[in-house]
Amino acid sequence: MPLSPQDLLAFLDRLGIPAETYDHEPVFTVAESRPVKARIPGAHSKNLFVKDKKGQFFLITAQDETAIDLKKVHEVIGASGRLSFGSADQLRTLLGVEPGSVTPFAILNDTEGRVTLILDANLMENERVNFHPLVNSMTTGISREDLVRFAKATGHEPRIVRLPAPAAQETETAEAAF
Asked: Which of 57, 131, 166, 175 has the smallest C-beta neighbourhood within 10 Å, fewest atoms?
């Protein structure tokens, strides 16, 4: 059975990791969460739950406004071939969270070690990082060092990599479409 936000916060406390948690209205997208994030100090994230062609799963955690080249990211994270998004059922089964609540804290539910945690180097340049504590109606902030310590305590050695950005032309085209 997946852990609750209270279970996660108790785990952080047992590790001696100071955490500050804020309650807020549920948010499902980076754009939707901007007003919430404006009230909470530190860097915020976006999280992608993906799998490669061999069925290996990855949780990519990047700074919220980071543009990621999904056609090239597999080369940087060590995946076999291009990535596709994991299904909602796979997300629930492996990480114990619902779509819209994806967070690196969810690796606590991956007791079999099937998901590789990828942390973007840009996010890790920030002193404080914020994530949903397993639900999208709360945000919890910890230090970047404590994020790594948390991951290791769950049996996940995080990979810190600089994620590839889309080419400037692709970004301009995508922005023009909105």
From this structure: 175
